[in-house]
């Protein structure tokens, strides 16, 4: 996915010009590598299972966890390229100015609230897993807190990006209002 016209916040700044967006892009690349490794491991495990009759439980466990990791590491990068699912059915009948206000202010604020709650819940769960030393029930035992930690990390990164884009939007709107008054 690429977005040739810049940010989803309609600012003129090219995508990836600040450290936060560079971090989000790097994290997406890490998620892509994890997904590729999980896919190859699943194929190897399936071949081994159907030819030799065995299998590696760690691959099945790891593949399940890799999906969680890929989703939350990919949140911010998906936002940068405008790849999140969006339903415009109700917005299509509203005036352009109202639609712009909803997309520019209400959606980011609501998203930050939701991501904050999800991230906080993920943080509490991660901390609890860390303190208890929680692992998977079957061998080989996989420590769960590092896997769970991607939830607050991914949510926090997207919240910071949404906040950055919201501040850009406010700044742009204020400067447009000042120009209109002059």
Any overview of this molecule?
The protein is an all-alpha fold. The chain is 71% helix and 0% strand. It has 6 helices and no strands. Helix 4 (96-132) packs antiparallel against helix 6. The longest helix has 37 residues, at 96-132. Residues 1-6 have low confidence and may be disordered.
Summarize the structure.
It contains six helices and no strands. The chain has 182 residues and is an all-alpha fold.
Count of beta strands: 0
How would the global form be characterised? Answer: elongated
Into which percentage range does the β-strand content fall? under 5%
**First-last Cα distance:** 40 Å
Query: Using only CA atoms, what is the Rg?
Result: 21 Å
How many helix segments? 6
Class inferred from helices and paired strands? mainly alpha
Major sheet: none
Contiguous low-pLDDT stretches (5 residues minimum) are 1-6
Compressed to H and E, one letter per element, the order equals HHHHHH
Give the assembly state of these chains.
Answer: single chain
The proportion of residues forming helix, as a percent range, comes to over 70%
The overall average pLDDT, rounded, is 87
């Amino acid at each position: 996915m690429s977005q040739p016209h810049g940010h989803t916040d309609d600012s003129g700044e090219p995508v990836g010009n600040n450290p936060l967006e560079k971090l989000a892009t790097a994290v997406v690349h890490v998620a892509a590598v994890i997904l590729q490794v999980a896919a190859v491991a699943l194929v190897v495990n399936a071949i081994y299972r159907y030819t030799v009759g065995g299998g590696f439980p760690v691959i099945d466990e790891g593949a399940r966890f890799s999906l969680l990791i890929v989703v939350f590491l990919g949140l911010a990068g998906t936002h940068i390229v405008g790849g999140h699912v969006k339903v415009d059915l109700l917005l299509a009948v509203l005036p352009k100015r109202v639609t712009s206000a909803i997309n520019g202010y209400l959606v980011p604020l609501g998203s930050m609230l939701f991501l904050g709650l999800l991230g906080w819940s993920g943080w509490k769960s991660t901390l609890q897993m860390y303190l208890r030393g929680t692992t998977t029930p079957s061998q080989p035992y996989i420590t769960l807190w590092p896997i769970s930690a991607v939830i607050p990390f991914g949510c926090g990164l997207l919240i910071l990006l949404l906040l950055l884009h919201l501040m850009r939007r406010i700044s742009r709107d204020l400067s447009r209002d000042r120009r209109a008054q002059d």
